[in-house]
Structure formats: structure tokens, C-alpha cells
Specification:
Blueprint lengths: L2 H10 L2 H17 L2 H21 L14 H24 L4
């Protein structure tokens, strides 16, 4: 699948970002990692931002060119990957 189409799913259905926020939120309560909490809150903030764009609250009507996503998607991706790596490492090496 084309990565552009995959990322476009968040534009079409912002609730997917809310699902990811919930997943990382649950992972935070299990591991108590600040990075995982930051990831959950970032996905939650992105959900609200993308919903505002979809409802035309945050844009004037011409929202077809989304340069903002060139910054947002990499940040969300890096945070998510780091959080998943921390969770995986914690499973291999349990807390004392």
C-alpha cells in the first residue's frame, strides 16, 4: 500500500488517531514511561487538530495542501517508534 494513502487514513478518519492515543495511554499506565505518555498525548492532540481541520474550524476552506503534515507525521512516527521500542525493551528486561 502507498504510504501516502496509508497516512491519508488519518485525514479521512481522525478517530484512528484517537485509537492510537488510547493504545499508548494504556501502555503508559502499564509501564509509566514519560515518553509513552508524551506519545499518547501527542496522538490525542493530533486527533483534535485533525478533527478541527476536517470540520473546517482550523482552515479557511482550502485545506487541500497540507504542508503541516510534513512536520506532524514524522514527529508522531518517531515518538511512536521510540515508545514501542521502550515497551519491547521493558518486556525483555523487566523492572527490578
Amino acid at each position: 500500500m502507498d504510504p501516502g494513502k496509508l497516512l491519508g487514513l488519518f485525514i479521512a478518519w481522525p478517530v484512528l488517531a484517537l485509537v492510537l492515543a488510547a493504545i499508548f495511554g494504556i501502555l503508559y499506565f502499564r509501564r509509566r514511561s514519560r515518553v509513552v505518555l508524551a506519545t499518547a498525548l501527542s496522538w490525542l492532540a493530533y486527533f483534535h487538530y485533525e478533527l478541527g481541520m476536517k470540520l473546517r474550524i482550523l482552515c479557511s476552506g482550502e485545506c487541500n495542501i497540507r504542508v503541516d503534515l510534513l512536520l506532524l507525521y514524522p514527529v508522531l512516527l518517531v515518538l511512536s517508534v521510540i515508545s514501542l521500542m521502550l515497551i519491547a525493551r521493558a518486556r525483555v528486561r523487566p523492572r527490578p
